[in-house]
Amino acid sequence: MKNTSPQKAPLTADDQAHFDSLLPAESFNRRAFIATAVGAGFALATQPIAAQTVIKTDSEGLLAGEVMVPAADRELPGYRAMPAGGANLPVVLVVHEIFGVHEYIRDVCRRLAKAGYLALAVDMYIRHGETAKMSSVMDIMAGPVAASSDAEHLADLDACAAWAAKNGGDPQRLGVTGFCRGGRTTWLYAAHNPKVKAAVAWYGTLDGAPTARQPKYPIDVAGQIKPPVLGLYAGKDQGITADQVEDMRSGLAKAGSKSQIHVYPDAPHAFHADYRSSYRKEAAEDGWKRMLEWLRQNGV
Q1: φ and ψ at 63, to 5 degrees?
Q2: Residue 267 contacts by C-beta under 8 Å, 6 or more apart in sequence?
Q3: Were both Cys, which of 96, 153, 209, 261 would link to 7 (CB 3.0–4.6 Å)?
Q4: Catalytic annotation, pick one of 220, 269, 272, 274
Q5: Residue-number span of the structural domain to which 177 is assigned
């Protein structure tokens, strides 16, 4: 059943899972050195990166690079990758974790572009700070993440969809995918925008105590989700319980949704994040294949 009791901890379970997995075992100076040596382009708070597992996708045959996307109140810095010379391409909006549009998210965009998509990610915390340049996860959570709102994020994704439609994308083939906190936003956006054809949410928080800035969670809007959403979750996630996953499945089923949730029993949270120790190659690769097939089967 849905737990409506107030949380006493300052962090949500999702936030705590992030924090626990990123607690540094080294001094800041050591981390800063590693960032310069092998982690350039990755968010500072994620250092040291697991360099031996990082996937590097080249931009050969792609139009890839930084862009500015007009939103309601400002331009948002972001990253776009698409097949060079492509037109009327299917679109996938990529929703980042709390670390902004750092190298991992950019590489995800290039991977999608290699599969034929116009992939676009913008920094949705930028109004409140540049999280990629912040060295402390706690500072990120207490600062930009706490100050941002779901309403901002949903509006920013609307702006991304509009920008993509004017820059080589097909508005009739709109998809969205997101990781961790971005996975939570993916579920919410699927309920928000009826033009979304399909979505894939990677281990996004499903339930929690509502706040003014985050008034609803995916479980609360399960009945409003029209496009099919594929949820990719971890059996050993310390922040997302098996009961929450089952509650979400139940809510989707009651609404007659075609959405599905697949759980990798032995994987931890953030199993797709190849730059982190949580990366699990088998689950990550299988999830990626499932994502591409899901998008194609559902019109993206």
Answers
A1: -100, 110
A2: 234, 235, 236, 280, 283
A3: 209
A4: 269
A5: 67-128+143-297
In a domain, 244, yes or no: yes
Alpha-carbon gap, residue 178 to 164, rounded angstroms: 17
User: DSSP class of residue 145?
Assistant: I
**Rounded (10°) CA dihedral 3, 18, 245, 293:** 150
Q: Are 133 and 80 in contact (CB under 8 A)?
A: no
Rounded Cα gap, residues 67 and 88, in angstroms: 19
Q: Is 269 a catalytic residue?
A: yes
Q: Which of 180, 192, 207, 274 is catalytic?
A: 180
Q: What is the pTM of this model?
A: 0.89
Examine the residue annotation and report whether 160 is marked as an active-site residue of this protein.
no
Count of other CB atoms within 10 angstroms of residue 70: 11
The answer to whether residue 42 sits within a structural domain is no
| Tokens, residue 11 | 């962090």
Q: How many domains does the chain have?
A: 1
Check: CB of residue 223 under 8 Å from CB of residue 255: yes
What pLDDT shows up at residue 40? Answer: 63
The residue annotated as part of the active site, out of 237, 247, 272, 274, is: 237
Residue 199 domain flag: yes
CA gap 254, 90 in Å, rounded? 30
pLDDT beneath 50, residues of the chain: 1-14, 16, 18-38
Q: What is the CATH number of the domain that holds 196?
A: 3.40.50.1820
Q: Quick one: tokens of 290?
A: 């499932």
- Residue 183 has what pLDDT? 98
Place of tokens 């906190």: 181
pLDDT at 6: 33
Whether 180 maps to a domain, the answer reads: yes
